[in-house]
């Protein structure tokens, strides 16, 4: 079970979530502040970060950005329902998913599983590396290169790109993407998808001009290409 | 009386100004002209009369006058016309003489003769001849000093003089008056425009300021110039705008405070709950390791904590609606798919719920809120009504935008008439005895607010088959 | 778009009417002023100063006979021959009527004609008092016209200013009277 770094300032939540996850077999390290959490990144080497948005001192969004500077670790935000604006900011900063507090441990567990789930590729049916325009997508290695240069992508971004490029020119609605890629319910917050698309575009698309790879289909959703 | 088209303020002001200028110019010109004319004529008249008198006095008379003498006198006098050349006519008894070809004058009137005869004084009269030319007729009787009294000698001399020169002078004066008045009028337009502008500019400024105020720029103020009525109006405007700005600021401040409160309370309440939930979960799982009483207690705490969490969530939702802090996150969904997914998620996709859904209909709404609404309505229908529950979705085209119409009908006993008006009230429990229900008592209130947020309406009624019927009507494309 | 006046609901419609009436009056006044202005207009007879004083040459004009024109105005005819003629003499001259020269000028007399040979003796004057002259006349004086009486009185009075004249006729005495010039 993956090692989880929990950065949460409230002691009761910290203890409760930590307790629940530990009972399910995770190794959990908890930090009270963003700075402490960042310090633990190096020593604890987590496989996933549960990050509270409302932190004293350095807030969750800043912590997320700092983590993303050096690592493409899965990050799940812990947020209260009323923090609409913060959810968007946090997602844009690089979080892969969000959980609304208070949440049952099984919900948290489900989110963790969803984030870490790899999109399975049927063996042998596809070539190892796919070339779409300037992108080289390695489905087995889960890497993406643009013009030969490796592009660092967060787990949600990779999964989204793989899902879309697996069915080029097919339109997926946000609700469908939430279900397939994030394993959320159909009615989860669609802004999760939008934020991920935005992050993906900044990394993969050309800065000038319209997006070629991840295209918006108004009123329906997103699709890959056509190039 | 048909009304003339309404004129602008500027036009009216300028027209009034010009009218005043015109009246005064014309009046002044006319009066001046009249005075000048009188002076010109008086000059001529006085000169004529005194000249006739003086000249007559130089002529010696021998009474009674003979025709020859009369003729001589008249001829002499006729040479000495002042200011213009004149014709002199003399009358003595029945004798007539004149300095021209005609023996009598057409210009000398009976009235002049009578007056001169009755009262021996010099007299004159202005007459127009048959051709309309003005003439001056002067009558001068000759008196002699006899025994220290002035007695009329019976001789009367008349002089007629055309007033052509005077006429020309007078005409020239009219022309001069006209030439003076018209440019004067033209010049008067300038102060008229200035006066109009000085009145209209503040008016226009005020109108622009009012427009800006109406558009929401509450910091709009007018410069107060002077101390007249317009300045008073400007001052009042500023005061009103200031008061308005202050009220709006206070309201906004209050709103912001309410939102902050809602958000802060939310966080404060939820954070301990998050911890509690996690812990009670653990206790729940391990409950069987404890003795039955402890286990029961643990399970109770766990259940109640869960309900508390739900209640807090619902309270937060309601308070956000009240603080107008609730926002719509709109997305395009396939309506049939959305409904099906809601039911699937709660495992209501069996024979308990029948659906009647259109295919290929896309709606624009907040997916999460829609899910909450549907879950609440179907859940209530299953819980308080009875299976089978029927969910039907229709679209209705309307001129101002297509509508989405959803009906949730249950097969239960229906809603009691005394309950029906209060069904959407907060914390209203239909059955008073049922104090402990599964929900928080806010379910329908939240559902109603969610529907309203989309710009729709939700009504509760008893269906024709007897069960409860909830009808939801909202735009197919919700506006943010 | 109708223009609304803020006070139109409070006050009756008269202000509007009054305003148009005032404007119309002003226009009319203006027009009147303009129209009556121009040109040289005829007038009535206007007296202007005294009459011309002429000098009648001749050696004294004390004695003056007054004849009349057709319209009853007295015309003086000074006595050239004997300026200081007595009242009786001037009376005879008057009663003898206008001479040829006077007649040519249209002068006449309203007194009845006198045959000097027959009635000459019955016409005479006498001093009734210091300043009153009695004029004896052979004809009725009561029936004399005003003009005729004036002729007599002024003629007799011209011999001496300030004289009063009494007409003594067979029927009545008229007077005393002064000459009213």
From TrEMBL, chain A:
UniProt feature coiled coil, ranges: none
One Gene Ontology MF term: transcription cis-regulatory region binding
List of residues that carry 4-aspartylphosphate: 52
Location of the DNA-binding region in this protein: 126-226
Ranges for domain OmpR/PhoB-type: 126-226
GO cellular component annotations of the record: cytosol; protein-DNA complex
Source domain of life: Bacteria
SMART domains referenced in this protein's UniProt entry, alphabetically: REC, Trans_reg_C
InterPro entries per the UniProt record, alphabetical: CheY-like_superfamily (IPR011006), OmpR/PhoB-type_DNA-bd (IPR001867), Sig_transdc_resp-reg_C-effctor (IPR016032), Sig_transdc_resp-reg_receiver (IPR001789), WalR-like (IPR039420), WH-like_DNA-bd_sf (IPR036388)
Pfam families in alphabetical order: Response_reg, Trans_reg_C
Keywords linked to the UniProt accession: DNA-binding, Phosphoprotein, Transcription, Transcription regulation, Two-component regulatory system
Gene Ontology biological process terms from the UniProt entry: regulation of DNA-templated transcription
Response regulatory domain segment(s): 3-116
Protein name (database record): Transcriptional regulator
Organism: Streptomyces roseus
TrEMBL record, chain B:
Keywords: Kinase, Membrane, Phosphoprotein, Transferase, Transmembrane, Transmembrane helix, Two-component regulatory system
Signal in keyword set: no
SUPFAM superfamilies: ATPase domain of HSP90 chaperone/DNA topoisomerase II/histidine kinase (SSF55874), HAMP domain-like (SSF158472), Homodimeric domain of signal transducing histidine kinase (SSF47384)
GO function terms (MF aspect): phosphorelay sensor kinase activity
Signal peptide feature range: none
Pfam families associated with the record: HAMP, HATPase_c, HisKA
Compartments where located: Cell membrane
Tree of life domain: Bacteria
Reactions mediated catalytically: ATP + protein L-histidine = ADP + protein N-phospho-L-histidine
Domain Histidine kinase: 264-478
Transmembrane segments: none
Domain HAMP: 197-249
Gene Ontology, cellular component aspect: plasma membrane
Matching InterPro entries: HAMP_dom (IPR003660), HATPase_C_sf (IPR036890), HATPase_dom (IPR003594), His_kinase_dom (IPR005467), HisK_dim/P_dom (IPR003661), HisK_dim/P_sf (IPR036097), Sig_transdc_His_kin-like_C (IPR004358), TCS_sensor_his_kinase (IPR050428)
EC number: 2.7.13.3
Protein name from the UniProt record: histidine kinase
Organism listed in the record: Streptomyces roseus
Automatic annotation (TrEMBL), chain C:
Protein name per Swiss-Prot or TrEMBL: Uncharacterized protein
Species: Streptomyces roseus
The organism's taxonomic lineage, starting at the top: Bacteria, Bacillati, Actinomycetota, Actinomycetes, Kitasatosporales
């Amino acid at each position: 079970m993956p090692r989880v770094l929990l950065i949460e300032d409230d002691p009761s939540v910290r203890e409760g979530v930590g307790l629940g996850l530990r009972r399910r077999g995770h190794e959990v390290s908890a930090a009270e502040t963003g700075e402490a959490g960042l310090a633990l990144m190096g020593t604890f080497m987590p496989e996933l970060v549960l990050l509270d948005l409302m932190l004293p001192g350095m807030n969750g969004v800043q912590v997320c950005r700092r983590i993303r500077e050096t690592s493409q670790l899965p990050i799940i935000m812990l947020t209260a329902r009323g923090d609409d604006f913060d959810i968007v900011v946090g997602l844009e900063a690089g979080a892969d998913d969000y959980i609304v507090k208070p949440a049952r441990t099984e919900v948290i567990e489900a989110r963790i599983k969803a984030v870490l789930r790899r999109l399975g590729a049927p063996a042998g049916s596809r070539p190892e590396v796919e070339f779409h325009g300037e992108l080289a997508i390695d489905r087995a290695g889960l890497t993406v290169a643009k013009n030969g240069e490796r592009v660092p992508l967060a787990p949600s971004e990779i999964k989204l790109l793989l899902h879309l490029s697996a069915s080029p020119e097919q339109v997926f609605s946000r609700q469908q993407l939430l279900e397939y890629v994030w394993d959320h319910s159909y009615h989860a917050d669609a802004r999760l998808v939008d934020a991920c698309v935005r992050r993906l575009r900044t990394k993969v698309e050309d800065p000038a001009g319209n997006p070629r790879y991840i295209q918006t289909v108004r009123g329906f959703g997103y699709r890959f290409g056509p190039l | 009386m048909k009304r003339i088209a309404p004129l602008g303020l500027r036009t009216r002001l300028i027209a009034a100004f010009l009218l005043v200028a015109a009246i005064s110019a014309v009046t002044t010109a006319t009066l001046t002209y009249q005075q000048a004319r009188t002076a010109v004529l008086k000059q001529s008249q006085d000169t004529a009369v005194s000249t006739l008198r003086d000249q007559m006095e130089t002529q010696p008379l021998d009474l009674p006058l003979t025709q020859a003498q009369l003729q001589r006198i008249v001829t002499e006098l006729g040479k000495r016309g002042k200011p213009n050349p004149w014709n002199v006519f003399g009358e003595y008894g029945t004798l007539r003489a004149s300095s021209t070809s005609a023996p009598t004058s057409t210009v000398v009137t009976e009235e002049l003769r009578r007056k001169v005869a009755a009262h021996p004084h010099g007299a004159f009269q202005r007459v127009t001849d048959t051709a309309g030319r003005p003439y001056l007729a002067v009558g001068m009787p000759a008196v002699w000093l006899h025994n220290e009294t002035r007695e009329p000698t019976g001789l009367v001399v008349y002089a007629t003089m055309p007033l052509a020169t005077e006429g020309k002078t007078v005409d020239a004066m009219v022309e001069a008056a006209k030439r003076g008045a018209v440019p004067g009028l033209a010049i008067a337009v300038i102060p008229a425009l200035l006066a109009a502008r000085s009145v209209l500019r503040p008016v226009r400024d005020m109108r622009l300021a009012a427009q800006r105020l109406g558009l929401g720029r509450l910091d709009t103020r007018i410069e107060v110039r002077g101390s007249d009525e317009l300045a008073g109006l400007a001052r009042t405007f500023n005061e009103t705008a200031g008061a308005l700005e202050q009220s709006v600021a206070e309201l906004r401040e209050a709103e912001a405070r309410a939102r902050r409160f809602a958000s802060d309370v939310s966080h404060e309440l939820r954070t301990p709950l998050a911890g509690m939930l996690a812990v009670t979960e653990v206790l729940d799982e391990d409950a069987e390791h404890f003795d039955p009483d402890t286990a029961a207690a643990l399970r109770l705490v766990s259940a109640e904590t869960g309900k508390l969490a739900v209640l807090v969530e619902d309270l937060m939702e309601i308070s956000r609606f009240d603080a107008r802090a609730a926002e719509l996150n709109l997305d395009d969904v396939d309506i049939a798919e959305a409904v099906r997914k809601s039911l699937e998620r709660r495992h209501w996709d069996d024979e308990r719920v029948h659906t009647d859904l259109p295919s290929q209909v896309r709606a624009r709404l907040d997916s999460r809120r829609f899910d909450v609404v549907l879950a609440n309505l179907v859940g209530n229908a299953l819980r308080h009504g009875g299976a089978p529950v029927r969910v039907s979705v229709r679209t209705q085209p309307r001129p101002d935008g297509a509508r989405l119409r959803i009906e949730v009908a249950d097969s239960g006993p229906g809603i009691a008439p005394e309950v029906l008006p209060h069904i959407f009230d907060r914390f209203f429990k239909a059955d008073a005895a049922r104090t402990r229900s599964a929900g928080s008592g806010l379910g329908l209130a939240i559902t109603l607010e969610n529907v309203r947020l989309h710009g729709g309406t939700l009504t509760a009624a008893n269906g024709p088959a007897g069960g409860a019927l909830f009808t939801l009507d909202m735009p197919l494309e919700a506006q943010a | 778009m109708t223009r609304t006046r803020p006070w139109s609901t409070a006050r009756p419609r008269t202000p509007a009417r009054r305003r148009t009436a005032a404007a119309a009056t002003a226009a009319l006044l203006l027009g009147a002023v303009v129209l009556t202005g121009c040109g040289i207009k005829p007038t009535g007879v206007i007296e202007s100063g005294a009459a011309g004083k002429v000098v009648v040459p001749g050696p004294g004009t004390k004695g003056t006979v007054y004849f009349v024109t057709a319209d009853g105005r007295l015309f003086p005819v000074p006595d050239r021959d004997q300026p200081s003629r007595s009242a009786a003499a001037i009376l005879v001259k008057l009663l003898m009527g206008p001479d040829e020269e006077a007649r040519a000028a249209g002068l006449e007399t309203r007194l009845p004609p006198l045959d000097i040979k027959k009635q000459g003796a019955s016409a005479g004057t006498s001093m009734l008092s210091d300043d009153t002259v009695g004029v004896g006349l052979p004809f009725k004086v009561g029936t004399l016209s005003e003009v005729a009486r004036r002729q007599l009185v002024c003629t007799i009075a011209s011999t001496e200013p300030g004289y009063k004249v009494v007409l003594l006729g067979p029927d009545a005495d008229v007077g005393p009277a002064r000459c009213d010039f």
